[in-house]
Amino acid sequence: MDEPVAWLADAWAGRRQWRILDTDFGQGADFLACWRAWKGDARRPAMLHFVAFCASPPPSEELLRAATTPQLHPLAAELAGQWFGLTAGMHRFAFDGDRVLLTLFVGQVRDALRQQTFRADCVFLGRPDGTDNPTMGKALARHCRRGARLVAQVASDSLRRSLAEAGFAVQAGGDSSGGLQAVFDPAWEPRGPRPDADAEPGDCAVIGGGLAGAAVAASLARRGWRVTVLDAAQEPAAGASGLPVGLLAPHYSPDDSLLSRLSRSGVRMTMSQARMLLREGEDWAATGALEVRDLEDRRPLLADAAMQPWSREAEARHKELGRVPAGAAAIWHQQAAWIKPAALVRAWLATPGIAWQGGSRVRRIERADDCWRLEDANGATLAQATLVIAAAATGCVELLGGRIPVHPVRGQVTWSVQGSEGLPPFPLHGDGHFIAGVPTAHGPAWFCGSTFTPNESSLQARAEDQRFNLDRLARLAPPVAHAVSHAIASHALQDWTGVRCASIDRRPLLGEIEPGLWISTAMGSRGLTFAALCGELLAARVHGEPLPLERRVAQALDATR
């Protein structure tokens, strides 16, 4: 559909964002053309959203074939590199420093439209099943701002009537290709909520300098906000996000539970951020991970082919490299990595537009006319902002007057630089986890743990917790425990402790508490999985953007659930 791209330069000039709705992704030709047009336009909007639907995603080879000009080849290759694991539902892909966002829904168009609430600036109406449905015009009208332009490949009489009845001014006669063009301009004021007026970027304050706070700060800064991140500590990642190394892996369940779907969305987003911002081999490594299951757990894995790039039955070579018995029940997670959380926090906080304000313990949040005032224990003003996000883990309880049900969870990790030779080249997890080959100032190290003790906040290392970690390692992978036995016997072990913040159902809490006052916290032991996802979800809700998740899945994270 080359014709629509020609007029985009004038249409989106001077806009902060431009949002395209494409009802038929096909082989991705429209997306590639719009992305290319955006890259080459000096007057382009700061952010391009492209929301597309497809009943069945094409193979990555077809994406490459859709690149019909040399200028499109590198874009198609970049898209194909992220084109994996497209299960039914919503998927978010990010390009050009997260300024070009593709949101793809795998499923039927009408199902997909019900899962989004944003308003499009233009619509590409392709040939998917149901396009000619008499109610299609009404369904599209709910997702168009006044003045949105629609371009259709096919112009049937029923489609013309459907669009006209829904408030589209249909161009008489169509175009030379046999399609049609229309503008959404109803003679009446559309009924129902129409969140067209997204927030104008201004001053924002984020309370908390860990994964949750840094992620949302970066998401808002990319959208033009001037963000101040305040923390009681002098340096970022001083709390649970100071964990020396963490495991990023999708959650697997035979029934593909809500947590499994959320985790895949979060893992995809965090892996994209890591590739863009971190040094591979130093700050993180995309190694994959081996999940060792209970020997009695022989439930079959989901047969869906789209799940295979995520989680599948472990092969003999995975078990051999992981040093687990050949007969062990195990799952191989291809999209998994170890990451140093503090490195990711620092990378997010380096986003242009973010200012760090350490040594600033916020004790009160007070409304002051048209903004919020953040005060210390003496009543002195630490910052003022029109938008405030509380991301201070359990500190949010006091700040928000006990309105959020969270609790502390103490965790202790055991590690050493001794006995690091010949260990698995990827993390193991199941009943506990084991990560080896992590670069440290003292040499490559291995880590095991972590304990999970609810309602405790002590940071004092405990000998019994160290023994607990080592006992779990012996059960998880006996040959690995034997390989590091010298370090254990010589007492060359160290421990790290931290306190995480968790909700009752162990899902994050994200939402607007009062106008302009939001919360993003309770990541629990899955901060690496959820932080970037929650940051993007919060930014999308603030700006009325396309959501990175199906609406019903996003509601599972709402702080008011």
UniProtKB/TrEMBL annotation:
Gene Ontology cellular component annotations, sorted alphabetically: cytoplasm
FAD dependent oxidoreductase domain ranges (all copies): 203-541
Group of enzyme by EC: transferase
Domain of life: Bacteria
All copies of domain MnmC-like methyltransferase, residue ranges: 70-172
Enzyme nomenclature, EC number: 2.1.1.61
Gene Ontology molecular function: any one: oxidoreductase activity, acting on the CH-NH group of donors
BP-aspect Gene Ontology terms: methylation; tRNA processing
Keywords annotated in UniProt: Cytoplasm, FAD, Flavoprotein, Methyltransferase, Multifunctional enzyme, Oxidoreductase, S-adenosyl-L-methionine, Transferase, tRNA processing
Family matches, as NCBIfam families: MnmC_Cterm
Protein name per the record: FAD-dependent 5-carboxymethylaminomethyl-2-thiouridine(34) oxidoreductase MnmC
Species the sequence originates in: Caenimonas aquaedulcis
Classification lineage: Bacteria, Pseudomonadati, Pseudomonadota, Betaproteobacteria, Burkholderiales
